[in-house]
Structure formats: structure tokens, C-alpha cells
Design brief:
This protein has about 260 residues and is of the alpha+beta class. The radius of gyration is 21 Å and the shape is globular. Strand 8 and strand 9 form a beta hairpin. The strands form two sheets. Strands 4, 5, 6, 7, 8 and 9 form a six-stranded antiparallel β-sheet that branches. The protein folds into three domains: about 45 residues, no CATH class; about 120 residues, no CATH class; about 70 residues. The longest helix has 26 residues.
């Protein structure tokens, strides 16, 4: 499953050609370069020369040994735009966390891109074994996301591996501290509407049906409604599904605090 995301890529300088009537000399340094997928020759992006290429292979080389040591297994691998963006999901079924009598299992989402749309990003979360809801909470150690820049030396010195390890180790603390607050916070009806408005129109009916069958009383209930739709009926091959999945917890958590 992971192998499909480890295709080779290369950097190709963007050579400039003057406009007609401006001479025939080409420019070797335009300040830009192309990121090209070698197995298909697809151009994945045109980025500035300050963009530091971090390949999916490099990310996995640093992340997998730590994930495997902590008994995690790959659950989902999705690539978008011919491979310009990749999302990996790992689950830790041997390390359950019990919150208010409910058993949850840690989950780790890792993202990388070749089009500068995202940093090398690690998101913490959890899932239910019974219904397979993916409860993505977002960045647990947000200040350590790795920016694709030649000015970021941390990208090549084991920083990605450290980010993965620290996120996994901190997941239990974050989930134990934050999830109970959602379970205890009474839901305001206006916030149900606000969350529904974040979903594409094709999924509004699914949200309504779920909320009708499972009347929400707390922000935990609302969070579970959103993650059920994202996990079970949304198109997992659409990048917008994963984007919303990474954002929805932080949105609902802020509502619960308001």
C-alpha cells in the first residue's frame, strides 16, 4: 500500500526564454524549478528555487521505523493530483485509550506535498474500532511542522522522525485532556448549522440523516457526526475530504470553549 506513494521525483530547472524581439539568450536561473514525477514524466509543480524537495521516500524512511516500533500499522494511503500531494494514515490498535468508559485507539496522519500546498505535517487523532470513525484532532505539536525551505535545516537531520515520535507520545495526554471536555459541553443549535455549512453540498443530506437518527446533545456528539460522514460516506479520494477532516476538530473544540 505504501509503495504506491514512493515513486521517484526529480528537480528540473525552469529555463527562461526571452519574449520575441528581446534577444535570443536563455536564462539559466529564473528563480524557479519544476518537480517532475520520473515514472510518468508528469510535472507536479513549479516552485521557487528556495523550495527544498523532501520526497515521500525520505518521509517514510524516517517515520516508519518509529511507527513500527510503536506497533502502528498503515491503514490508508491516498495521493492526489497525479501524486503532488500524499496523505498516510497509521493506526495503533494495540494501544487503546479509555475516556469516560469509551475505548479509543491512537491514529496518526502524515502529509507531504510536491506542490508547496502543505508542509511535511503530522496530525494526531484516534479512531473507534467498532465503527472505524477517524477522529483526527490536528497538529499536536504544531510548531514543529517542517516547512519545505532551503532555510529549514531541520528537514534533513532527523526532525521528521522526532516529530512523529513526539506526536505519538503526546497523543494520549491530549486526548485524555480534550475529549472529556467535548463530552461534557452542551451543544448550541447554532453551532450545528455552522459545522454543516463547512461540508460540501453533496454531504449535507448525509449529515442531516445522521443527526436526525442520532440527536446530538454535546460537542462530542457533533464531532462524531462529522467524523462519521467523513469516514463512511465522503469520497476518500478527494483532497477536500482530508482537508476538512484535518480542520473539523479544531473548529468544534473552539465552539465548545466559546
Amino acid at each position: 500500500m505504501i509503495e504506491q506513494s514512493l515513486f521517484p521525483v526529480k528537480e528540473v530547472p525552469a529555463i527562461g526564454i526571452p519574449l520575441v524581439g528581446k534577444g535570443t539568450e536563455t536564462y539559466d536561473n529564473t528563480g524557479y524549478k519544476f518537480i517532475v514525477r520520473e515514472d510518468t514524466n508528469d510535472v507536479l509543480s513549479c516552485v521557487s528555487t528556495e523550495y527544498q524537495l523532501v520526497t515521500n521516500q525520505e518521509v517514510m524512511d524516517k517515520a516508519l521505523p518509529i511507527i513500527e516500533r510503536m506497533k502502528g500499522t498503515v491503514d490508508e494511503v491516498k495521493t492526489f493530483s497525479q501524486g503532488a500531494r500524499t496523505n498516510w494514515v497509521f493506526k495503533f490498535r494495540k494501544n487503546p485509550i479509555t475516556i469516560n468508559g469509551e475505548k479509543l485507539f491512537p491514529q496518526l496522519n502524515i502529509k507531504n506535498s510536491y506542490d508547496a500546498s502543505t508542509q511535511v505535517d503530522v496530525l494526531g487523532g484516534a479512531f473507534r474500532l467498532v465503527c472505524s470513525n477517524g477522529l483526527v484532532v490536528g497538529r499536536i505539536i504544531g510548531h514543529k511542522s517542517a516547512r519545505h525551505s532551503i532555510w529549514n535545516p531541520k528537514l534533513q537531520n532527523g526532525h521528521i522522525g522526532e516529530l512523529v515520535e513526539e506526536t505519538i507520545e503526546n497523543m494520549e495526554t491530549v486526548l485524555n485532556n480534550e475529549f472529556p471536555k467535548l463530552m461534557e459541553s452542551k451543544l448550541k443549535k447554532k453551532d450545528v448549522v455552522k459545522v454543516m455549512q463547512r461540508f460540501p453540498t453533496t454531504q449535507i443530506e448525509n449529515m442531516v440523516n445522521y443527526l436526525t437518527a442520532n440527536k446530538p446533545e454535546t460537542y462530542w456528539d457533533l464531532f462524531n457526526a462529522a467524523t462519521w460522514v467523513l469516514s463512511h460516506v465522503s469520497n476518500r479520494n478527494h483532497a477536500t475530504t482530508h482537508k476538512l477532516e484535518a480542520e473539523i476538530y479544531q473548529v468544534i473544540k473552539k465552539m465548545a470553549k466559546a
